[in-house]
Amino acid sequence: MFLRCNEILKILSEWPVRTSGSEDEMLARESMVTLLESQTDVTIVEEAFWCPVSNQALLGMISIGVVLTLWVSSYMPYIALLSGLFFWISYLLHLDGRAHPLVWVLPKKLTANISASKGAGQGLYILMAHLDTKKCLLWDQQENDIYRKYVNYLTIAVIASCVLVPILNIIGYNLSFFGLAFLSAIVLCRLCAEFIPVLQAKEENNDLGVAAATVAASKFWHTLPKNAEVRLLITTGHEQAFSGVAHYIRQHKENWHFKSVFVINFDALTTNNLGYNLRSGTLTPVLYSNVLSKLVAEIPYQDHRFVTVKPQTKSFVNFETVYFYRASIPSLTLTSETASGNSISEEMAAEKAVVLTEKLVAKIDIN
């Protein structure tokens, strides 16, 4: 028997708070592994890696570095300039979902991705979802993309002060004590805002995404696509610049040179209208114009059940698929509308994503 959405949602509901590297995340992961072991001839591997503790730890390190750089710029302007460039560029790389040198010095916890696969052949279908959750913060309550964009632009400008102030010192203009104190206060206030949780708000989770990806993989394992392997990938490190996906690609990319790899990601699924992400990105735009996006666009015209499935564009948001995009691997994220749509039950929402995935995979020609 293939797995069902309600049993997966029930398991995940036992650990609603699953921050990356936490004990609750480990327990949820082990429960998912136990569930997957019920599937016949499926190879299950837990791939461990060291993940940064939190996004707040990174911003805290950058904020402290920026403040120290501001105050030493009057005495060592050239060293302060190099230091400022280091922290500013590190933040830009982090914001854009790229590797940066601060990752190596951040405190880390041991965690793991789950990889479960069955089948063999020229094709490789990766069905992916992230397991970890994040605390709902003040910025996350703003559903308006324009608001989120300007908050991030403001943060970039504030951190850029550690580059501008040393330059001003080099050309002979020294900022006053009160000016430095004002800039430092802004930097620290922005850092504090990162720790303000929304009262009575639930953790942001991807339970529906995990359920949909797992059920879809289970169905494919019982009726494998011709000449193909189907792999379920449950990742972690979502809020830590997609550390789990980055680790996974580093470990496996060399094995994919002679395969046709297709990645379907399930993220931010809700009971609102189902759709797929066509364009996202923070500093650099990411346009998912590939065989998967073209094929999924045909399905609403062929099946009236998916007439509401439409492409979506999200500003200042990235998905795990960005790493596959940069590796030139066809990828697509199934997600839901931010605004309220035709709300349905959780199980029906996950099942709809599963059926859409089945139809999409059936249209792929790996030859």
From TrEMBL:
Pfam families (alphabetical): Peptidase_M28
Swiss-Prot/TrEMBL keywords: Membrane, Transmembrane, Transmembrane helix
Keyword Membrane carried by entry: yes
Membrane spanning residue stretches: 75-93, 150-171
InterPro entries in UniProt: Peptidase_M28
Domain of life: Bacteria
Residue ranges constituting the Peptidase M28 domain according to the UniProt record: 209-334
Protein name in UniProt: M28 family peptidase
Source species taxonomy: Bacteria, Pseudomonadati, Pseudomonadota, Alphaproteobacteria, Kordiimonadales
